[in-house]
Amino acid sequence: MICGIQIRSARAALKLSAKQLAERAGIGIQTIMRFESVDGITPSRSSKLSDVQKALEEAGVEFIGSPESGPGVRLWKAK
Predict the structure, then answer these.
(1) How big, in percent rounded to 5, are the helix, strand and coil portions of the chain?
(2) What pLDDT digit, counting tens, does each position of 3-51 carry?
(3) Domain 4-75 belongs to what topology?
(4) Any idea what DSSP says for residue 26?
(5) Range 7-41 burial, b when 16+ CB lie within 10 A, else e
């Protein structure tokens, strides 16, 4: 499971706006903003969080660590 700080970091690494990520994930921009407002595990329906994770991974991000221990991202493929 990913956390808010990883979503913010991944989006910054990919130079995506919140709107662009919302479109790629097929969810609302307010959902992205809510996820990003939390540093730890986001309160969400897991399917929406999975959609965000999948969209970011398809764009070239690898999530490393865990929300409890060293959460981070690695850019492995520039788009």
Answers:
(1) 50, 15, 35
(2) 999 999 999 999 999 999 999 999 999 999 999 998 888 877 679 999 9
(3) 434 Repressor (Amino-terminal Domain) (1.10.260)
(4) T
(5) bbbbbebbebebebbbebbebeeebbeebbeeeeb
